[in-house]
Amino acid sequence: MIHIASLGYRFGSRVALDGVTFGVAAGELFGLLGPNGSGKSTLLRILTSLRRPSQGEAAIDGCDVASRPAEVRRRLGVAFQSPSLDKKLSVEENMRFQGYLFGMRGRALAERVDELLENFGLQDRRKERAETLSGGLKRRVELAKALLHGPRVLLLDEPSTGLDPAARRDFWEVLGAMRGRDELTVLVATHLMDEAERCDRVALLDQGRLVALGKPGALKDRIGGETVSVETAQPALLAKKIEDRLGLKTRLAGESVRVDSPDAAGTARKLLDAFGAEVQAVRVGRPTLEDVFLTLTGRGLDAGEEEAP
Amino acid sequence: MRGNTAILFVLPVWSLLMREILRFLRQRNRIIGALGTPLLFWVVLGAGFGDLQLFFPGALLMVVLFTAIFASISIIEDRNEGFLQGVLVAPVSRLAIVLGKVLGGAILGCMQGVILLLLAPLSGTSYGPVEFIAAVGVIFLIAMALSALGFLFAWRMDSVQGFHAVMNLLLFPMWMLSGAFFPASGASTAIQLLMTVNPLSYGLGALRRVLYGEAMADSLGDPSLLSSLGVTVGFAVLTMAVAVWMAGRPEKN
Questions:
Q1: Does residue A26 sit at the B interface (CB-CB below 8 Å)?
Q2: From the list A52, A84, A102, which residue is nearest B85 (CB)?
């Protein structure tokens, strides 16, 4: 449904995307995971035909984004990170004006608006102005708006940014219900690993390059074993001590030091015996997608410079 | 198929235009600001110089200037808040986007102008239905031109603050040198030259000729009706064309 081949994009001397290739099957929920500045937003802009690729090609449902932008846009629903709702308009007006943009009108439009407001549980909010809604409800309207014209592919850019955990859960539930109803292909760009964990497959993007692609479980199996995560006041110092004294390989992730090990429980005990005084907390767990990213790139997901718009 | 294409063009224009008008009506401070400032100017200047009639067309021009410009520069807000991005990824031509936005601003400017026009008899200005319709037509043309001018300045800007410089250094002087503030007949040669190249002089000239007749406009040194209308139409077409061209260029990075 989405086809991307050796896609490259540069502005000036900066390479934003470098030979990215992947495909998304119909009905798939596909994640694009990477820190800010990794090229996710640029990729989405190319798919929406707001930017022309410098090299390679991209197609939605068989339509090339560079040569057939109008057809691509009819097939796409997009929910950007910054809300596209007009705050001064009511929920219903926002939906109706969106419909006009896609050439919808009259009864057909009214019925479609009703249907979506119903499905999204927004019927009783339809007369309310967008500015009065909570962040979670705004997101729901945003999603309803993106799906109004019945797109086959939905692009989501950092969909749960700024939402509290309950609203996040709600958002994914609603999205799941919509996916079940229509055969919707979804591409989610995110820097949050728990968002990526929900996807059928994930592409890890770092500095414009695709570093890994696969099912979340398979990606995690790749770095294998379990991870011991140690929280401490001075992570860098502790990491060095662990390497010097125990000869274990460590990684730094924010406030914690991580050690991959086939026998995590044993390693955790060893670490506690040796450095108990400096340790605030120890956690043993399966590696996360962030661990995968860290292992492959040496960088965390929070790092990275602000991406140019 | 042709009918279908027309609908795909007209509906988005309608969408953006109606949104502009609804937004305006829901922000009461904008209505008050756009109508209050010129009203104040008119009354203070008119009373100061003892001639409300003389300053009426100038006040009218200012209402249109404020309303049309402020409506079209809201494109900066639209861009920053994300609304514009949603429009840009819809299958809508750039011409339709510019037209919707500019027409919205022009209609608002025109509506405010008409409100002021209805107050004109208070100053002793009297006009018949023909003059009224002609004046509304002229106001609409000026509003289109100014709305498009606002749009083309605002399109690339990322903050409303940046627009204030344009407002103070270009638009306000354009108004001052249009004949709204003082007539061309008494000005120095340099100022007269500036007034001749200022497209707003012709808009004001057209308003005065339509409302007050030829004799008064001639005595103030206004351009002829034909050149007034010609330049005003040309100004509107030119600013529209540039706005469409600007919006059609690919965005950087």
A1: no
A2: A84
| Residues constituting chain A | 309
Write the DSSP symbol of residue A58: E
Q: Assess whether A196 and A251 both reside in one domain.
A: no
Asked whether residue A189 falls in the same domain as residue A58, the answer is: yes
A145 chain-B contacts, CB cut-off 8 A: 86
A306 within a domain of the structure (yes/no)? no
In this prediction, residues B92-98 reach a mean pLDDT of: 92
| pLDDT more than 90, % of chain B | 32
Three-state secondary structure readout of B108-124: HHHHHHHHHHHHHHHHC
Residue B161 near residue B73 (C-beta atoms within 8 A): no
Q: How far is A124 from A118, CA to CA, in rounded Å? A: 9
Predicted confidence band of residue B251 (pLDDT cuts 50, 70, 90): low
Number of domains into which chain A is organized: 2
Give the angle B5-B7-B9 at the CA atoms, nearest 5°.
Answer: 75
Residue A287, pLDDT above cutoff 60: yes
Distance CA B211, CA B54 (A): 11
Cross-chain residue pair A11–B19, CB shorter than 8 Å: no
Contact assessment for residue A100 and residue A85, using Cβ atoms and an 8 Å cutoff: no
Of B4, B12, B23, nearest to A100 by CB-CB distance is B12
How far CA B212 is from CA of A136, B76, B104, B119, in Å, comes to 58, 38, 29, 15
Contact: B83, A103; criterion CB under 8 Å: no
| Structural domain range at position A27 | 2-219
- A123: contact with B, CB 8 A cutoff: no
Burial class (CB within 10 angstroms; exposed 0-12, middle 13-18, buried 19+) of A292:
buried
